[in-house]
Amino acid sequence: MGQPQGPPQQGYPGPAGPQGGQQPPPPYAQNQGQVPGPAPFPGGPTAGPFPQGPGQSPGPARSGAPVPLILAIAMVVLIGAGVGGYFLLSGDDSADPAADRPANAIPRIWEAPSPVSEREGQDENNLRSLWFNNDDIILGDGEGVRAYNRKTGKKQWKVKTPKGAGELCAMSKEPSEDGVGAVVFDAGGDDCSFLSVVDTDTGRTLWSKNLKGESTEDSPQMVVNSKVVAVAIGDTYAGFTITGGAKVWELTARGHDCTTTVGLSPQYRAVGSVCSDAKPKKQLALQDLEYSGIHSTVSGEDRAVGQILSDRPLTIRMSAEADAIDAEGSLSTYTEEGKPDHTFKLEGELKDLSLEPRDTFVDEDENVLVSGYGSGGMAAMDLKTGKLLWKKSGAAAAALDTDGLIAVATAPATGPAGRDPVLVSLGLRDGKEKVLGTLYDPKHALGSPDLMSLAWDGHTNTLFIQGEGLSHDKSSIQAFKAPTS
Question: SS3 letters for the chain?
């Protein structure tokens, strides 16, 4: 979404998705928008608590048809029958006799194609997202949304494109704890407004809605919790029930002359508004999206809402003022009661924090925030003092685990073993690094960590990487099985 501006009587310009894209990230405040008016602020939801078949094996070689040709044809048949499309590599990479294979090599157990989509970038809710269900890793790319078995890489299902929709545009950052995710397709004319809600266990579409309006949407927002799918798509700022897609609330402006900005997360909706014809003139409204009775307002707040970075504690990136989208602004946290807690200006060392939802993590104690930093690095910040605790170049975070922060880092260029990135764990407060192993690729073609989309399965110590190789001739999803500690 663009610069905040005076509202039209009807319509709401669309708002402004994952680490690893090839396009530069846009300003965070693109998530801002203009709320249609003049109906009163609705106060949130009215709902209650949300609390392949095998192909034929090739025969022996015959004169006139070389064996490689027969094998190639057989592979095409297998892929066409639905059993191909992935490559189990546990007997390949792990047994590679290369002289430069490091002693701590983490084997790649499978790889599957992941065609690049023009929609890939680092905007919130655009591609690429990586989801988990009980058994699978789920991704979206130029081929749509698909699930692969986490152990074998075998394709399990693909989300069906709704009738009348085009290419995949975006996925929610994550699905709900109940296994429901939101995806958006092109509704025509490069308008990313066709919403589908899917079951992540089966890939079945639960319901779809074409939300195409007067405004063309290129960066849709959608979040999912146990009961509601909340969206900011084109002219629609609303919440729909998980089960059938019934509308349970719709956001409207507080007055006729308002500048309004919105941020969404699975738990919260944050609405900043400055109105010349409403009281109070300046206000921040916080609404719990699962429990309609939990809401609060902060009068006199004139900063624009950028993005919600964390639900625990509620952490919002704000711009300096309502009608100025700046690169610095501030970071604010709020109590469980929705009262302002800490605010830190993004200046000095803090101004280099990327603070994008997809590369930002907050620990369970709600004390440390980790985010991208500078050009291709990451850093940790104390949420109580605003001090930068540590920073590291050439690294990208995958997840918070019991061992600390799991990340991928560029190995030092100290000989052959330094050509592949390494999997590391870092202490949250001191950044102390422990190398878990080298992500060994016989061709040494893994890209830079900051250009990867990463997901970590802590139950099986498996790292998943989606992205292009160094040569940019192949984009894939890969699984690496790390040793247990």
Answer: CCCCCCCCCCCCCCCCCCCCCCCCCCCHHHHCCCCCCCCCCCCCCCCCCCCCCCCCCCCCCECCECHHHHHHHHHHHHHHHCCCCCEECCCCHHHCCCCCCCCCEECEEEEEECCCCCCCCCCCCECCCEEECCCEEEEEECCEEEEEECCCCCEEEECCCCCCCCCEEEECCCCCCCCEEEEEEECCCCCEEEEEEEECCCCCEEEEEECCCCCCCCCCEEEECCCEEEEEECCEEEEEECCCCCEEEECCCCCCCEEEEEEECCCEEEEEEEECCCCCCEEEEEEECCCCCCEEEEECCCCCEEEEEEECCEEEEECCECCECCCCCEEEEECCCCCEEEEEECCHHHHHECCCHHHCEECCCCCEEEEEECCCEEEEEECCCCCEEEEECCEEEEEEECCEEEEEECCCCCCHHHHCCEEEEECCCCCCEEEEEEECCCCCCCCCHHHCEEEEECCCCEEEEEEECCCCCCEEEEEEECCCC
CA distance linking residue 409 with residue 395, whole number of Å: 4
φ and ψ of 29, to 5 deg = -75, 10
**Distance between CA atoms of 126 and 129, rounded to whole angstroms?**
8
Asked whether the beta carbons of 238 and 262 are under 8 A apart, the reply is no
Residue 42 CA neighbour count, 13 Å, CB half: 20
In whole angstroms, give the CA distance from residue 134 to residue 141: 21
Q: Could you read off the pLDDT tens digit of each residue along the chain, which spans 485 residues?
A: 333 333 333 333 333 333 333 333 333 333 444 454 443 333 333 333 333 333 333 333 333 444 444 434 444 334 433 333 444 544 445 545 566 788 999 999 999 999 988 776 645 556 778 999 999 999 999 999 999 999 999 999 999 999 999 999 999 999 999 999 999 999 999 999 999 999 999 999 999 999 999 888 988 999 999 999 999 999 899 999 999 999 999 999 999 999 999 999 999 999 999 999 999 999 999 999 999 899 999 999 999 999 999 999 999 999 876 555 555 699 999 999 999 999 999 999 999 999 988 889 999 999 999 999 999 999 999 999 999 999 999 999 999 998 789 999 997 665 554 589 999 999 999 999 999 999 999 888 898 898 899 999 999 999 999 988 887 778 899 999 998 76
What does the block give as tokens for 448? 């830079």
